[in-house]
Specification:
It contains 8 helices and 12 strands. It is of the alpha/beta class and about 240 residues long. The protein binds zinc ion (ZN).
């Protein structure tokens, strides 16, 4: 079984199109989206449509909930908040309903899929440190948890005693029996690890590998659309730096 995984598309159609094109060539059995389809970018509806049509498994992210008024946005920074309010205006009934119906978590055999954290996902906490990762890995029943949310790809690996980590921007990890994996697949539409290329992941249970790959996309067009939409300039600028 081979899975492709994407996350944090954030309304960036240019990035999503390129990533889906690459994934198509890989011909995975299933495509999983780990949330934040919208927010920040200029094409929320088209991105929802592409994810809706192409992916088998989709969970909700905090920006998806924010766009339908389901989560508190007072802790969002001013640019994120402006983008949420703009996105809310753009979504019609159909797309709103689609976001409303997304589950917070999904699992399939040994695999667990969630936007933020496997415990209390609705609190939208981030997993950055080894200590945080160790906590969630110790609670994990299956061998694998896939997340998004921080927009920084990384794999945390636990042998039951110690946790190590494999940092991005891209990596390929061999799956060993008896180890547990907590993997952040990075962001399609707004990378924040200093690499402006879009990220996606491949999980190959036959070959026994987890991979995060990066692909360049047309950043300039995505930026132009953000500015044309009247969204905050900084949201266009940051795409160039991957921050
Ligand atoms: Zn996000």
């Amino acid at each position: 079984m081979r899975y492709a995984l994407i996350s944090d598309v954030h309304g960036n159609l240019e990035a999503l199109q390129v990533v889906l094109h690459h994934i198509e060539k890989e011909d995975p059995d299933k495509l999983v989206c780990l949330g934040d389809l919208v927010g920040y970018g200029a094409d929320p509806q088209k991105c929802i449509d592409m994810v809706r049509e192409r992916t088998e498994l989709v969970v909700a992210g905090n920006h998806d909930w924010a766009a339908i008024g389901r989560t508190d946005i007072s802790y969002f920074n001013p640019y994120a908040r402006a983008a949420v309010l703009w996105t809310r205006e753009k979504l019609g009934e159909f797309h709103r309903k689609y976001l409303e119906e997304l589950p917070l978590v999904l699992s399939e055999g040994e695999l667990y899929f969630v936007h933020s954290t496997p415990e209390r996902p609705e609190e939208w906490n981030y997993i950055f440190s080894l200590t945080q990762a160790a906590y969630y890995l110790s609670k994990l029943r299956g061998g694998f948890c896939f997340v998004g949310h921080s927009h920084v790809p990384v794999a945390f690996v636990s042998d039951g005693d110690e946790v190590s980590w494999v940092p991005g921007p891209s990596f390929k990890v061999r799956i060993e029996p008896d180890l547990k994996y907590l993997v952040n697949v990075g962001s399609v539409g707004q990378p924040r690890d200093g690499d402006n290329r879009a990220a996606y992941a491949l999980l190959d249970l036959r070959e026994g590998t987890i991979e995060v790959r990066r692909v360049p996309y047309d950043v300039a067009t995505a930026q132009r659309k953000i500015l044309k939409a009247g969204l905050p300039e900084v949201l266009a600028e940051r795409l160039a730096y991957g921050r």
